[in-house]
Amino acid sequence: MSHSETSSPREDPRIGHSRRAILRAALAEFAAVGHAGFRMESVAARAGVGRSTVYRHWPDKAALVADALAGLSRQPASGPGPGPGGGAGTARERAEILLTHLARALTDSPVAAAVPALIHAAATEEGFRDRLHGFSAQRRRRLTDVIATGVGSGEFPATLDPEAASVALSGGVFYRALMTPDPPDDGFVAGLLDAVLGR
Amino acid sequence: MSHSETSSPREDPRIGHSRRAILRAALAEFAAVGHAGFRMESVAARAGVGRSTVYRHWPDKAALVADALAGLSRQPASGPGPGPGGGAGTARERAEILLTHLARALTDSPVAAAVPALIHAAATEEGFRDRLHGFSAQRRRRLTDVIATGVGSGEFPATLDPEAASVALSGGVFYRALMTPDPPDDGFVAGLLDAVLGR
Amino acid sequence: MSHSETSSPREDPRIGHSRRAILRAALAEFAAVGHAGFRMESVAARAGVGRSTVYRHWPDKAALVADALAGLSRQPASGPGPGPGGGAGTARERAEILLTHLARALTDSPVAAAVPALIHAAATEEGFRDRLHGFSAQRRRRLTDVIATGVGSGEFPATLDPEAASVALSGGVFYRALMTPDPPDDGFVAGLLDAVLGR
Amino acid sequence: MSHSETSSPREDPRIGHSRRAILRAALAEFAAVGHAGFRMESVAARAGVGRSTVYRHWPDKAALVADALAGLSRQPASGPGPGPGGGAGTARERAEILLTHLARALTDSPVAAAVPALIHAAATEEGFRDRLHGFSAQRRRRLTDVIATGVGSGEFPATLDPEAASVALSGGVFYRALMTPDPPDDGFVAGLLDAVLGR
DNA sequence: CGCTAACCGAGACGGTACGTCCCGTCTTTAC
DNA sequence: GTAAAGACGGGACGTACCGTCTCGGTTAGCG
Description:
Four copies of one chain form a homotetramer. Chain A is mostly helical. Chain A folds into two domains: 13-73, Arc Repressor Mutant, subunit A, CATH 1.10.10.60; 81-197, Orthogonal Bundle (Tetracycline Repressor, domain 2), CATH 1.10.357.10. Helices cover 69% and strands 0% of the residues of chain A. The first copy, chain A, is built from nine helices and no strands. The longest helix of chain A is centred in the last third of the chain and has 27 residues, at 126-152. Chain A is elongated. At the A-B interface, helix 6, helix 7, helix 8 and helix 9 of A face helix 6, helix 7, helix 8 and helix 9 of B. The first copy, chain A, binds a DNA duplex through helix 1, helix 2 and helix 3.
């Protein structure tokens, strides 16, 4: 669904311009008014584009929303590379960096606005479900690895199941952000790590 | 927003009849087609009622959906009463009962269909947010109490923060149910308890 | 396609109001901007009615135009009844009355604006063709009868074919109105009668 | 509006090629689907030409249709020249030749398809009106002249107004062709001549 | 023969009208 | 007085064309 490859026959540059402007506008519209109230005409206006141009590149509203939200899943890949959270520090410190990053993403726009919509959409539509599951699996893998490393090095109890622990940690952050009036701030993340990984 | 009290001036029995049928139908519609695709006409048809009758009792679609989903928040109160999860068994066993109950609720219809919608709606609308936060706080309080009891009795480490632990546990179940292709079955709940409360 | 009968279950009076207002507006729109440029939204606005109300009673633009123009075919039936053009005067005088009436209809709005459109539509669509042929046959029958009477009474030459004569007369008026810059005024009609029926 | 002259600076032959192909295609499209349903894209496809090439030579749809139909008005001028219908035979015979030619034109494609469209267009647009009036005046002049000759030679009654008679005859043929289910065949033309010019 | 200018196809673009769907309001009629 | 039926105004949707535009590729006709 993402068309980032440079196609051979030198694609019309207007196409890229329009597509980018529309995707950006769609994300802004989504953050502003949510899933309900998302109007194609508003997106076109935000993008400074004709309504028909939107429909030329996406068949309908659902497809545009899907593509716009898909863009969100790609950004974090460029986030905590092998540098930070990579090798330096104790496993606990590295886990804290990863969790804090997740907490930040769930607090700041526009991801904060998109995740609940993704969760909802995933309940009904196959495509969204796969995207959400894939996205969360990708994010959580690194955390699981860090915990496994900590278990191996004796920093964490040998009985700790890295998989279950990473679910508890990630889930805890999500829960705090979505189901609770308080945001998952640094203090909360620290307490969560204490509870799951031991003090 | 809920109209369950029996009004004094001998309310027409047809009213209660219609109200209940419509709420039931709204829930069924919601489970069937989700938030998008929820049509007032379908609800009326499911309830065997005229479209205008729906609007006589609820001002608009949002109010009806809210009321129907509110009904879900009340049911679990009749679930694990003071009997099970109350006093019998170890703290670990009682926590497992509570978590398993939550996992069941998130797996079976119609709650399973409503929770993602609630999460999404909470992102945009004040009322839904309060309802969701209240609902989850209510459910989680009992779990936090059980953990605190376990800490007090020495069954769990004295350093364990019951609040953080209950967030990790509840969040883990939610995460598994919503963000993962696998359901939160009994084995998963057991592993989660091991990870957070120690083996 | 005309719904003038009083239906049994006491039809909602708003329906009649809307239908009449819309038909009137459609005719006005047609006279104002012709077939091309005929916009459903303009019709609704002229009728003081919502756009959806138009579509509730007619499936599409073609059907509405057809119905509106059909109304024209009915009006003249109430025109020269058995009174004028009926029995009084010579055959020549009665023919002149009928032809003058036709000339008037082709000169004044809104029929004047509708006939060219009907002719055009008849070239392509079966339904319009039948309507136009029926309409013109109905109008011309009375003229043919009058001429036949004149032939029978010796007022016109016995060799005159009433059918051919009435086509020449009606056609002459149409030709003058549509294919000529000058209107079919009284003098023209008189000259036409002289030419066909003799002086 | 017609660009038939060979321009001085040795025009690119591709231009003439495209223009002719497009005009031919436009006429075919018109005959096939009428005024409504006439799509520029179809014309381009019929002509085996890009859509933009059509717009390079005509500013819009109206201009193309006008030019295509204008071609029809010119052809008949080369039809019954001073040769046939010129001097040979009686006035009655010569009138019959002219009327039969008109009847043929109104029966066969593509003129048959274009005339109703021209009549309709003439009702709304100045340019079309002038074209139609000029076209019909030109065609009818010869008929009027023949009748006047017949009156002068004593073949027709001295009281016959050639102008009115030619309108009755031409109008009769048009009426039969357009407003009647039966075509203006030879028998009809003969009867019409009998009625107007006497037997 | 090679160059330049133009014509050409393909199709993206902004715009407008269409016909559909659904909402929330209202009116009418039956029970 | 409540309910069912459904007409109504409104507004967003997705489709179909229009007429404008930008883009390379090809082709005519001159040097």
